[in-house]
Amino acid sequence: MSMAGVFFACMIGQHFPASTVIYANIVFMREFFVNLGVDRSHFTRLYEQLSTSYKTGVTLDADSIVLENETAKGKIDFISITPHLSLLKLNIQFGEDVDIRRVATKTPSFYSCLFSLKETVDLHAFSNVDEQEMNRIGFSAKHSALYFSADVQALFRVIPNEVSKVIIIIFTVNALKELLQDKDDQLISLFSGETVKGYAAMNPLMIDEVSMLFDLAISEGAQELFFWGSALKLIASLTHQVYLEGEKLKQETGILEAARMIQVRNLLVSDLSGNCPAISAMAEKAHMSLTKFKSLFKQMFHLSYYQYYQHYRLIAAKESLVFGKSPTETAYEYGFSNLGHFSSAFKKKFKVSPTEL
């Protein structure tokens, strides 16, 4: 399959250089840069970006952006709950590869929690200081939750022709302090200070609550109270899940070792374009012996170090093939020594050859 596309970059108040090159036979991702905030002005700017990029089929209807064109169908709702708490509800199907990036700000005046019901989604959070140290949540992370402060960038990547159902709760720490009056230090401490970021698997309560926000028809008079209750319930459930997963890591590995292993894992998958980094070098970064590093890596991530790298490298290669790159281009892009080596590894994992996709 041969595809051609155009890279669209839309940034509030900024134009990208005209030197951006469009190559034949390569798919360029449509990309939006958004600056989420509690007030409606940020939502209006998102509408302006979408309208500028798509040209047609984008309308603003009260607090809803409606998309109805050849490459995007669905709706984005903005719900202002209190002056310190808002909610975005995305229910969209894109017909192309799309990146939605949240731009970091210097002052972490608010926090965001993102809950996804999408089966194939790639979520990231990373600091401006070192983009290599990103918290990657798998290439097929079903039912994931991500939280971050305003000074942390975030990326929500969608795959074409699948419905994306995402809830984003945006709030200031005052929203929690006003409600709790400092009675729940665990909840307030998670969302305070600079460079707050993390993720957790959505527990059944979170999945049910997010599903209900999409499935339940809510009368206009009850919407504000309903969304307020749901938002607080989701934030509390996420905090509880983060605490439980943290305690599990402490029991199994020790929190310092677990944190180092997560950093090493993130660094490992941040660049899939070459040979796997030497395991001895990664063990040194984690301040562990090679034997302990091998054992702990498999315990935490359920694959050996080299299997883990190969697993994600092949998944990324498969995505490139689906999006139109040739097997030769893909093998080169992901650092395989030759096409035969790539084809053999690919068929072993997916039971089909690269040319059969």
Secondary structure layout plus pairing:
Elements: E1 8-11, E2 30-34, H1 41-54, E3 58-61, E4 64-68, E5 72-82, E6 85-94, E7 98-102, E8 111-116, E9 122-127, E10 135-137, E11 144-149, E12 152-158, E13 163-171, H2 173-180, H3 185-190, E14 197-201, H4 204-215, H5 223-252, H6 255-269, H7 279-285, H8 290-301, H9 305-322, H10 327-333, H11 339-350
Helix pairs in contact: 4-5, 7-8, 9-10
Derived from helix and strand composition plus strand pairing, the structural class reads: alpha+beta
Helix content: 25-40%
End-to-end Cα distance, whole Å, is 8 Å
| Total count of strands | 14
Mean pLDDT score: 76
CATH topology of the largest domain: Jelly Rolls
- The CATH class of the largest domain is identified as Mainly Beta
Would you identify the regions where 5 or more consecutive residues have pLDDT less than 50? 1-27, 124-142
Strand content: 15-25%
Order of adjacent strands in the largest pleated sheet:
3-4-5-6-13-8-11-14
Query: Rounded to an integer, what's the Rg over CA atoms?
Result: 21 Å
The geometry reads as globular
CATH architectural designation of the largest domain: Sandwich
CATH superfamily of the largest domain: Jelly Rolls
